[in-house]
Design a protein that fits this description.
The longest helix is centred in the N-terminal third of the chain and has 24 residues, at 3-26. The chain starts with a helix and ends with a strand. It has 15 helices and two strands. The protein has helices at residues 3-26, 39-49, 54-67, 71-75, 79-86, 93-108, 117-121, 128-139, 148-159, 170-179, 185-198, 217-220, 240-252, 260-263, 270-282; strands at 287-289, 292-294. The protein has a domain at 240-294.
Length: 297
């Protein structure tokens, strides 16, 4: 092995070991990290955590697993009940996809979450990240797990840039694969994810508390500012997303179909309200009823 490559591998090994030691001391006791948590519990957590902070997921996850401890238990209920239970987690199409995934798991996989990444990718709502995360955290397999937090840690420590590109690149996947240890890969994935969530944050990184600050290329370079496309947060107030959420909330809280006239009271702008309603119908999150609208059966 060339000296340069060997030194990179040695540096990566030191970083992985330091993150693992830090994770052992500072990991949050999240219920889906418990060794007794089922693969189904891990899959549910990954669906809920997409674009949603951990603090908002904890109680909905607990209620969900208590009500539907297996994929089969969820598959037996109408899709509308999954949407109702999703509450205000946002992006409710995730609830529909999770319900559809549960039905496939129950029907085609004997009620057991598959462990194979390729098979996981065939489930509704399961993409590259979610499949790798479930295979890693539920089954202890070795896969690069590239969520937002991990990608930020890799970009800063190894590439010396503040933020990664908008979507993972081939070069980034290659870096993640090279850094991933041959033993303890799932622990590295969880540890680097936690480091990004608690220490190497997007807005206010706590570099003085970072266990790998001495190995960080971005810190060594003086923390240069991001030079890529502007990073903009997603607006919510006044958007169609907010109107969709309000309409869906009215239906979740009702035990019977909601008349169209009652939905008119949810939002004053009739054009925007109708646009949001049409999009909910298009996404199959609500269905028309002779008495108005309801959640799907």
């Amino acid at each position: 092995m060339p000296t340069h490559s060997r030194s990179q591998a040695e540096s990566a090994a030191v970083i992985v070991a330091a993150v693992a030691a830090w994770f052992d001391q500072h990991a949050r006791p999240l219920p889906w990290r418990d060794p007794t948590c089922s693969a189904w519990g891990v899959l549910v957590s990954e669906f809920m955590l997409q674009q949603t902070p951990v603090a908002r997921v904890l109680e909905p996850w607990r209620r969900w697993i208590e009500r539907w401890p297996t994929p089969g238990a969820l598959a037996m209920e109408p899709a509308g009940e999954a949407i109702r239970a999703w509450g205000r987690l946002g992006y409710p199409r995730r609830a529909l996809r999770l319900h559809a995934a549960a039905a496939i798991i129950d029907d085609r996989h004997g009620g057991e979450v598959p462990s194979d990444v390729a098979t996981l990718r065939e489930l509704p709502g399961v993409g590259e990240y979610t499949a790798a995360a479930v295979a890693s955290f539920a089954f202890g397999q070795a896969h690069p797990v590239l969520d937002t937090n991990v990608r930020r840690v890799l970009a800063r420590v190894f590439e010396g840039v503040e933020f990664p590109s908008k979507t993972p690149t081939a070069a980034e996947r290659g870096l993640a694969a090279r850094v991933m240890p041959t033993s303890g890969a799932a622990r590295w994935a969880a540890g680097s994810m936690e480091l990004g969530a608690l220490i190497c944050t997007a807005a206010k990184p706590r570099c003085t508390s970072c266990p790998i600050a001495g190995h960080c290329a971005w810190l060594a370079a003086g923390q240069p500012s991001h030079t890529g496309p502007p990073r903009r947060g997603q607006a919510y107030a006044g958007t169609d997303r907010q109107v969709r959420g309000l309409l869906l909330q009215a239906l979740r809280e009702a035990e019977e179909p909601v008349p169209a006239g009652r939905l008119d009271l949810v939002w004053p702008d009739a054009v925007q309200r109708q646009r949001a309603l049409d999009s909910l119908l298009s996404d199959s999150l609500i269905v028309p009823d002779s008495d108005g609208y309801s959640l799907p059966l």
